[in-house]
């Protein structure tokens, strides 16, 4: 994830991480409509939070068993399973 805060806009590159390829297919459906809807909702919420325009880029990545990997979870900045 990357965040670049400029004077009038915040640019955010964000990853949505799923554990299985089939889950990725659900989020990134044929027309990318679900991913677009997720991104639009997130952008609106972020703009309200930061009180500033937000340009949001989203990617969906597959990482097997990421939800059981305490080191990976810690690398996301959200703590570990043992905290």
Overview of this protein structure:
By secondary structure, the chain is of the alpha+beta class. It is built from 3 helices and 3 strands; from the N terminus they run ββααβα. The chain has helices at 21-27, 33-50, 70-75, and strands at 2-5, 9-18, 53-62. It has a 3-stranded mixed β-sheet. β1 and β2 form a beta hairpin. It starts with a strand and ends in an 8-residue tail after the last helix. The model has no long low-confidence stretch (mean pLDDT 86).
Total strands: the figure is 3
Mean pLDDT: 86
User: Could you tell me the radius of gyration in angstroms?
Assistant: 15 Å
Beta content comes to 25-35%
Query: What helical percentage do the residues reach?
Result: 25-40%
What class, by secondary structure content? Answer: alpha+beta
Separation of the first and last Cα atoms: 23 Å
> Total number of helical segments?
3
Ranges where pLDDT stays below 50 over 5 or more residues in a row are none
SSE order, one letter for each helix or strand: EEHHEH
Strands of the widest sheet, in order across it, are: 1-2-3
Shape: flat
Largest pleated sheet: 3 strands, mixed
């Amino acid at each position: 994830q990357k965040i670049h805060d400029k004077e009038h806009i915040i640019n955010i590159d964000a990853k949505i991480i799923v554990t299985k390829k089939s889950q990725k297919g659900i989020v990134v459906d044929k027309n990318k409509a679900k991913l677009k809807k997720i991104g639009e909702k997130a952008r609106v919420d972020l703009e309200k939070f930061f009180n500033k325009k937000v340009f949001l880029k989203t990617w969906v990545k597959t990482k097997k068993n990421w939800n059981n990997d305490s080191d990976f979870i810690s690398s996301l900045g959200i703590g570990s399973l043992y905290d």
